[in-house]
Every structure is written in C-alpha cells, then in structure tokens.
Design brief:
The structure is a single chain. This protein has 12 helices and 11 strands. By secondary structure, the protein is α+β, with helices and mostly antiparallel strands. The protein has 3 domains: about 5-220, no CATH class; about 230-325, Helix Hairpins; about 335-504, Histidine kinase-like ATPase, C-terminal domain (Heat Shock Protein 90). It has a 5-stranded mixed β-sheet. Strand 1 (about 170-175) and strand 2 form a beta hairpin. Helix 1 packs antiparallel against helix 6 (about 230-285) and helix 9 packs parallel to helix 10 (about 375-395). It starts with a helix and ends in an 18-residue tail after the last strand.
C-alpha cells in the first residue's frame, strides 16, 4: 500500500473516531441535563406537595380547635330546642285524623318553629365564623410553633418517594427574613454547592408569616450519573479503539519504513560487495594469462589488488556481523586501560593518507598527552575509523575536505570531537542517524555507499563502554560527532602535549 493511501486511510478513520466520540459526549451531556431537569422537577413537585399537606394539616387542626371552642354554645342551643320540642303535646300528632288546634296551641307552635329557625341560623353563623377564621385570618403563632418538623420530614420523604426519588437528603427551615429556625438532626453541608432546592411553606399567608424549606442532596451527582452511567463504557471503548487504531497505524508506518530501509540496505550491500568481487574476479582472470605470470611486478600488483579487495570485502562482512552480534548482545568486550591519545594518534596516522589522497586535511587538537580510559582497543579503534570514514563519505566535493579531531577532559569525563566541513545533516534527520539501516539522503549524489550500519555500531560500542555520543550539524557547513567517556586516574596525567606534528 502506498504511503499516501495509508495516510488518507488513517486520517479518515481518525476523523471518524473523533466525530463518534464527540457525538457520544454531546449525547451524554444532553441525557445528563435531561435527567437533571427531571430530578429538579420531581424535587420541586415534592416540596409543593409536602408544603400543601402541611398547610392542610394546620387548617384541620385550626378547625378542630375552633369547633371545640364553640361546642358549649352549640350544645346549649341544642338543649333549648330539645326542651321546647319535649314540651309540645306530641299525642296530638300520633293519629291520622285531622287535628284541630286551639288558638293558644297554634301560637305556641309558631313560636317553636321561629325559635328553631333562629337556633339553626345561629349554628350556621358559628360555622361560617370558624371557616372564615381558618381561611382568612392568618395564624399569629411563630413559624417554629406552627410547623411540626418531624411531620414535615415525614411529608418530604413520602412526597420524594412518590415522585421516584429514594435518596438521602438534608433540609433546613427559614423564616421570611432568612433566619434559620430549624435544621435536620443529621444535617451536613455536603452537596450544597451543587444545588439547593427551595419551597414555600404556607404560601397563602402574608409574606411575613410564610416560611422557606431548603433541601439538598449530598449524592445527587452520583444519583444522576448512575442513570446515565451506562454510556461511559461505550465512550471509553471508543477511546480504546481510537488508540489501538493509532498504534496499529504507527506500527504499519514503521514497518513500511523498515521495509524501505531494509531494501535500501540490500541494494547498498549488493553494490558494496559487487565491486570487490568483480575486482577479485578480474584479477583471477588476469592470473590465468601466461604473460602476467612471466612479469613478477605485474603478478605482485595483481596479488596486492586481490589482497586489498579481500580485506575490503572482509571489512564489510565484519560490519554486518558486528551489528548482528550487538543486536543479540553477543559481542565480546575485553576492556583494558589505554591512553586514548595514543589510540587517536595511531588512527590519525593511518587515515591521514586516505584524506590527503583526496586533497583534504586531517588535523588534531589534543588537550593532554595522556587521557586514560578503560575500553576495548579493537572496538574503540573501529569507532574512530567509522566516524572518520563517515566524514569522507559525506564530504562536500566543491571545497577542500577538512577534518579536526579534538579532545577535552573535565570532571572525570573525556570528550572526543570529530568535526568535518561536509554537506551536513538536516535537523529532522539528525536524530535518526544512529538508527539501524538509516542513511542520510545525499541528493543527486549516488557515489555514497554503505549499509547504514556504521553509526548504529558506533553508538552500541560507546554505550557498552559506559559513554555517550551525540551529533551536531549545520547543512552545508559542518557535522560534529562528540564522544564522552569516563576516565581513570594515572600518575602521569596532565602533561600538556607539545608535539607539533600532531597539530598539522
């Protein structure tokens, strides 16, 4: 699959996951707000119902008290009516025949009915007075005496349960002037910051006679979340799928890049092996020529070519094997105390011929004549050769090659720097140059060969020696590799170098 296709597919899938997650979050928020509104409506309805029951309870109590207060007068009126009825000659009403009343009896009968009507009207007036007093005359008692708070608590609990809320709550009662007159026994302020619901007690009374009950729920958020919590696993699952997808895409991109690097490695290895093999093959064919056998100088020259190309081929094979051994942690190290200055001078002496053959200059700036370190001589020497060879490979052919090796020791650490004036490395590529098989792009130049194994080998060796390595570079100006190694004490340490041949 092409790189563009991978990126397009990744962007499409990533955008889909993001849109899906955003929609889930919006839906979760809407459901949460809807549940919260339903909860608030239920609480407000419960407060109204509890206040109404409390008001009805007070009204009933007032009527009972008023009726009892008027009971004696009503009882006396009833007694008089009964006495009058008893005084009448009832035998006259016990026959079906027509009864004739005397004038006196007829007058007595009229007075009886007149008195009965008056007594009825009196009792009606008493009842009207009671009802009027209950309905239109507010209580003059303080709120603390008007409200039975235990009943109010019971009414609240019943109303909340009837509206589908079985949740712990706490309440306080205030007078009209916001003076607290009661709070529940187990009151806690937890949950007050989220939401406090208020209801009016005795709403039909004048404002100064009214009360306010305030209720809050310590676990309201948990209660509402419990109703919408089923959506959270889906959102988390979407996030997990998104990260798994991103991880899979990154693995695919890395594998594709690794495949490209390996293909590049195979191509470079083919080119690196092809040249010495072709040279050896050609030299072998020339050895079969009788004229060559007769010329001893020519024979020595051809044997020298075969020997050099064989060494070159062996060196390339060793590079691959060394990296493979480091990958398996199978490389063997034989560290010993060495003077790093001597090793550097030996490498410079050997490699200077190659640099000068290209018209370049190899200089050294050695701080001291002795820098004692504990390293494997072979691997440490290979590190220096690899870095110098890298400077030669990536030289700028439009200007004279110049390489400088410098040392500096401070606080028990030795810093070895190898600087060149080559083509440089881009900033985004600088952190990748120590990756296996990675090779810096050289533009239109096709003469730079290699496996992309030299710098990974260098980094592995330095790491195993207990040191660090990093690179600095400016495109078109320079590249500088810095090696930092721990030093060891020596009795002759600190002698300034004075050999002018080392400062060419």
């Amino acid at each position: 699959m092409k790189k563009v296709s991978i990126w397009l597919l990744s962007l499409l899938m990533g955008a889909s996951f993001i849109v899906l997650f955003v929609l889930q979050v919006r839906y979760f928020n809407e459901v949460y707000m809807m549940r919260k509104e339903q909860f608030e409506e239920s609480v407000k309805r419960s407060l109204f119902q509890a206040a109404r029951v409390l008001e009805l309870d007070e009204t009933q109590t007032k009527m009972e008290r008023s009726i009892l207060a008027k009971q004696d007068s009503v009882r006396q009126s009833n007694t008089k009516v009964i006495e009058k009825i008893s005084s009448l000659p009832m035998h006259k009403y016990a026959t079906n025949s027509v009864v004739k009343f005397t004038d006196a009896e007829r007058e007595q009968r009229k007075r009886f009915f007149r008195d009965s009507i008056q007594q009825f009207l009196h009792r009606q007036d008493l009842m009207n007075e009671v009802v009027s007093r209950v309905l239109y005359v507010p209580s003059d008692l303080p709120l603390r005496e008007r409200v039975d708070f235990s009943k109010l608590d019971r009414y609240l609990k019943t109303s909340l349960r009837n509206n589908g809320i079985d949740l712990e709550y706490h309440f306080r009662v205030f007078a009209y002037d916001e003076i607290e007159v009661f709070r529940c026994r187990d009151y806690t302020s937890r949950g007050e910051a989220d939401q406090v619901y208020s209801g009016v007690l005795f709403p039909n009374d004048p404002k100064h006679q009214q009360g306010i009950v305030k209720v809050h729920f310590p676990y309201m958020r948990q209660y509402i979340f419990s109703n919408v919590g089923f959506m959270i696993p889906g959102m988390l699952f979407t996030l997990v799928l998104f990260f798994i997808f991103m991880f899979a895409v990154s693995v695919i991109i890395k594998q594709r890049r690794l495949s490209e690097i390996k293909n590049d490695f195979i191509n470079n290895m083919t080119h690196e092996f092809k040249t010495p093999i072709s040279t050896i093959s050609l030299a072998a064919q020339m050895l079969n020529d009788p004229s060559v056998k007769k010329s001893e100088p020519m024979l020595k020259h051809i044997c020298g070519i075969i020997n050099d190309e064989t060494k070159r081929l062996r060196f390339q094979v060793e590079k691959v094997l060394q990296i493979s051994m480091f990958e398996r942690n199978a490389a063997t190290f034989k560290p010993k105390e060495l003077n790093a200055t001597d090793v550097i001078n030996d490498v410079v002496t050997t490699f200077r011929l190659k640099v000068e053959s290209l018209g370049g200059v190899l200089d050294t700036k050695i701080q001291y004549s002795e820098h004692w370190v504990k390293v494997d001589e072979m691997h440490f020497t290979n590190v220096l050769f690899n870095l110098l060879d890298n400077a030669v490979k990536y030289r700028d052919e439009e200007k004279q090659l110049k390489i400088i090796i410098s040392t500096r020791e401070k606080d028990g650490r030795l810093k070895i720097s190898i600087k060149d004036n080559g083509i440089g490395v881009k900033k985004e590529e600088l952190r990748k140059i120590f990756d296996k098989f990675y090779r810096v792009h050289t533009g239109n130049r096709h003469d730079v060969k290699g496996f992309g194994l030299g710098l990974p080998y260098v980094k592995s060796v330095i790491k195993n020696l207990g040191g660090t390595i990093y690179a600095e570079s400016e495109v078109g100006k320079m590249t500088k590799f810095n090696i930092i190694l721990p030093t060891i004490k020596n009795n002759d340490y600190g002698k300034e170098i004075d050999n002018p041949t080392l400062r060419r």
